[in-house]
Amino acid sequence: MDILFLNGPNLNMLGTREPEQYGTQTLSDIVAHIEALATEVGLSIEHHQDNSEAGLIDKVHAASKNGTKYMIINPAAFTHTSVALRDAILATGIAFTEVHLSNVYKREEFRKQSYFSDIAEGVILGFGAQGYEFALNAAIKYIKER
């Protein structure tokens, strides 16, 4: 697999959850679009959404064994709380882009703290589902340059 595409808790509720913050597209719609774009350039992508921190960590661990070249990660609420997920990512050494649908700097103070931004290749936030496309383009560039 070339790219692991991870989404954290509550993102399975996209489309109905706070559409003013997160838009009206479902996660399934977003994933189908990103998978199609990756396929167009000859890259394989695996998506996993989990409401469990352990499930996300298990996927990151598996990525270190299956040849994953890059990760696109929206840790969602785990952004502000998960040292364990951060440590799992660091243990793999796999480059990644952190994505957030909303602009966290326009929201509550606690959302401005990320346990991932300082170890990410880049951070994309505030562009809704289009942010995943930006992250995919960054992943494609990263993979092709190596």
Automatic annotation (TrEMBL):
Q: Is Secreted among the key words of this record?
A: no
Q: Which reaction does it catalyse?
A: 3-dehydroquinate = 3-dehydroshikimate + H2O
Keywords in alphabetical order: Amino-acid biosynthesis, Aromatic amino acid biosynthesis, Lyase
**Gene Ontology biological process:** amino acid biosynthetic process; aromatic amino acid family biosynthetic process; chorismate biosynthetic process; quinate catabolic process
Q: Where does substrate bind?
A: 74, 80, 87, 101-102, 111
Q: What CDD domains does the annotation carry?
A: DHQase_II (cd00466)
Family to which this protein belongs: Belongs to the type-II 3-dehydroquinase family.
Check the record and name the PANTHER family matching this protein.
CATABOLIC 3-DEHYDROQUINASE (PTHR21272)
Q: What is this protein called?
A: 3-dehydroquinate dehydratase
